[in-house]
Design brief:
Layout lengths: L1 H6 L8 H15 L3 H51 L18 H41 L2 H6 L12 H39 L3 H8 L16 H39 L3 H4 L3 H4 L17 H20 L1 H18 L6 H14 L4 H47 L10 H16 L1 H19 L4 E2 L2 E2 H40 L7 H6 L20 H12 L3 E2 L5 E2 L9 H10 L13
Antiparallel strand pairs: 1-2, 3-4
Length: 594
């Protein structure tokens, strides 16, 4: 019953004392001796001591484990903080605030910090891996190893230094490499664009040209996948230089061909329709290399086409050489004719034909020589222009002078006939112009002498020395002035005789106006283009007469050559006038000039 009470926890609280009391009761009932009782009590004490020792040992081991765990946690915390460089960061977690207390309390304070740092370390490793991977890829692209950059190599992140400072260094390196890649890619694209434009102008295959430099430069390849290595840039630069040099040489060749085409067209008077077929060749004759951008403008087939055309025109020019040379000679003769310079045209033409037939001179040399002659002829004509202009004015003034003399002899000039007022105005202008003739002749003579002194040769007008012509005109004009003075003296004498006769015999009818007009003396010689009521042809007519006598073609006023034609004899008009005047008295007075 006592044993049952000691083992039943429901009867009361079980303690060591209650158990010992129950044990005493059992011993009493059993009748154990004191020795046995002492022995059993000693055993109980020893068993209790062993239990306590085991518990203390277990507690000591547990404490040691906790202390080691705390030390490891602190070491890991220090390592993580060092690796992450957290001591210098703004978001630094730091050491736990509670560094005292029980071991478990200290561990509980460190655990969340370690967990946060481990998470931060994993994120930082990923960031480092990404940056280093991009750096490695760009370096591979710059080195020209596109396969390595696409596949990616083995990447090791240094976990001992995951600080933001180190990360910023890698990031700065990545940005620098990205900028370099961008610059290189920009250069590559510029080179590719230049190669494309040059190939278009030169008529070359762009695809084969650019892929020969590097396969990745094809248009079908993405921009970011194109090669940006030093070797690719170097080969692109060499390709561009080669294409530009080829473009320069082709343009020079095409411009030479275009110049030859234009010269040949001008020589043979090629029509504009035929020239327009090669506008794509001649349009770049004065263009610079950079100005030629039209696709196919410098293609090889176009240059070959121009070469074939030049060769064809060269052969055609050889067959038409005589026609071309005679055309040049006609141009030369026209220049000399306008300048009133006499040349032997027949001999010049015969010489040209003989040179062409003999084949001793190149057609181009002959034409160049004739072009030089034309240039010199134009220069000669230009040097004579001022004098010839004054000669024309002098001849025109002489014509007006001749007309004025005819007008003064017309007794009906004051009649109110149709156009009489116009003739009166012309007569007034003619008198002003005639009064300027001496000064004009004097100026003309001075200019001719200056011209002759400068060139040490006489100034000829259609083969006649112009100074001699002017001297002759001056003599004729002087003779005319003397004739006028004699006529005035004779008129005064007749008037005086008539007055005396009227005083003695009375007045008598005055002679009729017609007879008085016919009784006038002959006209004095003066240069006239119509051959002369003054008795001497104008310089142009006189030169025609001299040319006719010398067997040379005459020259008209506009400079063109005309065939021989009969010329009125010298003093033809004056002779007819004298014949008419021979039937009347030479003592009749002349009509007064208006």
């Amino acid at each position: 019953m006592a044993v049952a009470d000691g083992q039943n926890p429901l009867l009361g609280e079980t303690t060591c004392g209650s158990l010992l009391q129950q044990l005493q009761q059992i011993w009493d009932e059993v009748g154990e001796s004191d020795e046995e009782r002492d022995k059993m009590l000693l055993q109980l004490e020893q068993d209790c001591l062993d239990v306590y020792k085991r518990k203390v040992d277990q507690a000591a081991k547990s404490r040691a484990h906790l202390l080691q765990a705390l030390a490891d946690a602190k070491s890991e915390l220090s390592r993580l903080l060092s690796a992450l460089g957290a001591l210098g960061e703004k978001n630094f977690v730091g050491m736990p605030e509670k560094t005292t207390g029980t071991i478990k309390e200290q561990l509980a304070a460190i655990a969340p910090i370690l967990e946060q740092l481990w998470k931060q370390k994993e994120e930082r490793i990923k960031e480092f891996s990404d940056v280093q991977s991009q750096i490695q890829k760009i370096c591979a692209e710059i080195a020209g190893n596109l396969k390595f950059s696409e596949q990616g190599g083995t990447l090791t992140v240094d976990e001992a230094d995951l600080s933001l400072k180190k990360f910023d260094e890698f990031h700065a390196q990545l940005q620098e490499l990205q900028k370099e890649k961008s610059d290189r890619l920009h250069k590559v694209l510029d080179f590719v664009s230049t190669v494309h434009d040059l190939c278009a102008v030169l008529g070359m295959d762009f695809f084969s040209t650019i892929t020969e430099v590097h396969p990745s430069l094809n248009d079908s390849v993405g921009v970011q996948s194109k090669s940006i290595s030093n070797d690719t840039l170097s080969r692109l630069a060499k390709t561009v230089l080669a294409l530009k040099e080829d473009k320069k040489q082709r343009l020079r060749k095409l411009q030479e061909l275009a110049a030859q085409l234009i010269d040949l067209w001008n020589l043979m008077d090629t029509p504009a329709e035929e020239r327009s077929l090669f506008d794509h060749v001649t349009c770049n004759i004065s263009a610079s290399v950079d100005e030629v951008t039209v696709p196919g403008a410098l293609a090889l087939d176009l240059i070959e086409q121009a070469e074939v055309e030049v060769e064809r025109l060269d052969q055609l020019k050889a067959s038409r050489m005589k026609e071309i040379a005679l055309k040049r000679q006609a141009e030369l003769e026209e220049i000399y004719a306008r300048a009133h310079i006499e040349i032997d045209s027949e001999a010049a033409r015969e010489k040209i034909m003989a040179m062409i037939d003999s084949g001793n001179i190149e057609p181009s040399e002959l034409l160049a020589d004739m072009d030089n002659q034309i240039v010199k002829a134009k220069e000669e004509a230009l040097s004579r222009k001022e004098i010839l202009d004054k000669v024309e004015k002098w001849m025109s003034a002489c014509e007006e002078e001749s007309w004025l003399e005819d007008y003064n002899r017309d007794e009906n000039r004051y009649n109110s006939s149709r156009g009489a007022h116009l003739n009166l105005k012309r007569a007034e202008k003619a008198r002003i112009l005639v009064n300027k003739i001496p000064a004009l002749v004097e100026t003309l003579v001075a200019k001719i002498r200056a011209w002759e002194e400068e060139r040490d040769m006489p100034f000829s007008y259609d083969g006649v020395p112009l100074l001699a012509m002017l001297d002759e005109y001056a003599m004729l004009r002087q003779d005319r002035e003397e004739e006028k003075r004699r006529m005035r003296d004779q008129k005064k004498f007749h008037e005086q005789v008539s007055t005396e006769q009227e005083a003695v015999f009375g007045s008598r009818p005055s002679p009729s106006p017609g007879r008085s007009s016919l009784g006038s003396t002959k006209k004095v010689v003066g240069p006239r283009a119509n051959g002369g009521a003054n008795g001497t042809p104008a310089p142009s007519r006189r030169l025609s007469l001299n040319a006719h006598q010398n067997g040379v073609k005459s020259t008209t006023k506009d400079g063109k050559r005309e065939p021989h034609r009969p010329v009125a004899p010298v003093n033809y008009v004056a002779i007819s006038k004298e014949d008419a005047a021979s039937h009347v008295s030479g003592t009749e007075p002349l009509p007064a000039s208006p």
